[in-house]
Amino acid sequence: MPTATHTPLDRAIIHHFVVEFYARLRKHPELGPIFERRLGGAWDSHMERLTDFWMTMLGGGTLYRGNPFDVHRKIEEMAEHQFDDWLALFEAAAKDTLPANLANQATEKAHRIANSLKMGLFYRPQGLNQTAP
């Protein structure tokens, strides 16, 4: 991992991080099976798509075109508490594989994304008449 205070964004670095993060996630007792059921044999294409996603999130252009909320909304077995484990795995992989400036930026974005997804997927104020999409 480079030690420079500012390392430029590079697809190879981001791809390495994404692969390492998902290798860790696949070993998680709850998250691994969820992703395995959803992705099956499509891990390689998922790594490319997520590399595009994180390149976009970190300012590397608009490589990713998709709707993360819609994708996650369809995962019935997902629970709110799993976001904490996802973030812990993400932070550890980012720290271990990315230069500090990119690790910090990615971790900050990941927290924002996780909070947004949790609010959209699980927040149901009491007293409001909620209808499922």
Textual characterization of the structure:
It is a single chain. With 133 residues, the chain is an all-alpha fold. It has a single domain (11-119), classed as Globins (Globin-like, Orthogonal Bundle). Helix content is 65%, strand content 0%. It is built from 6 helices and no strands. It has helices at 11-27, 31-39, 43-57, 68-73, 82-97, 100-122. α1 (11-27) crosses α3, α1 crosses α5 (82-97) and α5 (82-97) packs antiparallel against α6. The radius of gyration is 16 Å and the shape is globular. The mean pLDDT is 86.
- The backbone outline, from C-alpha atoms, is globular
Mean pLDDT: 86
Strand content: under 5%
The CATH topology is Globin-like
The assigned structural class equals mainly alpha
In DSSP terms, counting alpha (H) and pi (I) runs of 4 or more, how many helices?
6
Helix content: 55-70%
The CATH fourth-level homologous superfamily? Globins
CATH class: Mainly Alpha
Q: Tally the beta strands.
A: 0
Distance between the termini: 44 Å
Query: SSE string, helix = H, strand = E?
Result: HHHHHH
CATH architecture: Orthogonal Bundle
Query: What about the largest sheet?
Result: none
Give the number of domains: 1
Note the main attributes of this structure.
single chain; 133 residues; mainly alpha; Globin-like; 6 helices; 0% strand; globular
What's this, in brief?
This protein has one domain: Orthogonal Bundle (Globin-like).
Write the layout of secondary structure elements.
Elements: H1 11-27, H2 31-39, H3 43-57, H4 68-73, H5 82-97, H6 100-122
